[in-house]
């Protein structure tokens, strides 16, 4: 990549302009440029804050998974509501935390002094210096990174990490599964999943979660570890901890079934707003029904940039759920 090509998009008013579809607010730039198709209004900001809470429950309040003895500089790609970035900045006051997102207005107005939020399109080459960050965090980016942009995105993350620095990625695969196999292709949750994937796949990679491990290795990362967790869509699990996650996730799922689908289903698939709402209503009923044991798979992947001293393999703290991934180790608070 030629450094002369790198330039940060200045924060002009176009990044703040919104456009309404079906009574929800979307970012004009993101829609016009095919970057991101979820709303950016206060409802969505609240949904993203709730989603952060769900992730915190899943990961037992561990914000950072790999072993990093001294955290000095952290980058979050796609900060959204800035919940993760704010929490990291508060927990590590001596660390410089930088967040980057295409839309700044879902973040709180007051943020910690050691947090800087920047506006840019992550499909563009990164403008950060090479060998700079101890950790790059990327979560829920599959709806934003262009389908042909993932390898460049991974290469950029690799470049800006210092030798020995870590990348940590979390992606939900929005393909509803059933823990007991009772969801069929005729069920609304499966129809929703199929249509969501179909609506995006020309521009995005809705199956990106499944590729994180391969992409990370191909980019040059070592000590790559990937795990799959279960995100229950309601309180059906028998395990008390998993059940509490499912119960907390119920309202969150109701919101995302609408917010993720509204624009792509109407504007890209040609469904009417009423058809979308009917499908979402049916999918919500199924998500709530404990008989289906419905969940979304969540893929967690970490990898280290070579160099920077001794390997730290063997000191990782794993998460597991009842689907083979132990997150029962005590959280470091």
TrEMBL record:
Signal peptide: none annotated. Residues 74-165 form the Methyltransferase domain. SUPFAM superfamilies: S-adenosyl-L-methionine-dependent methyltransferases. Pfam families: Methyltransf_25. PANTHER family: 2-METHOXY-6-POLYPRENYL-1,4-BENZOQUINOL METHYLASE, MITOCHONDRIAL, METHYLTRANSFERASE. CDD domains: AdoMet_MTases. Residues 308-333 are annotated as: Disordered. Residues 313-322 have a biased composition (Basic residues). It comes from Phialemonium thermophilum. InterPro entries: Methyltransf_25, SAM-dependent_MTases_sf. Belongs to the methyltransferase superfamily. LaeA methyltransferase family. This is Methyltransferase domain-containing protein. Residues 323-333 have a biased composition (Basic and acidic residues).
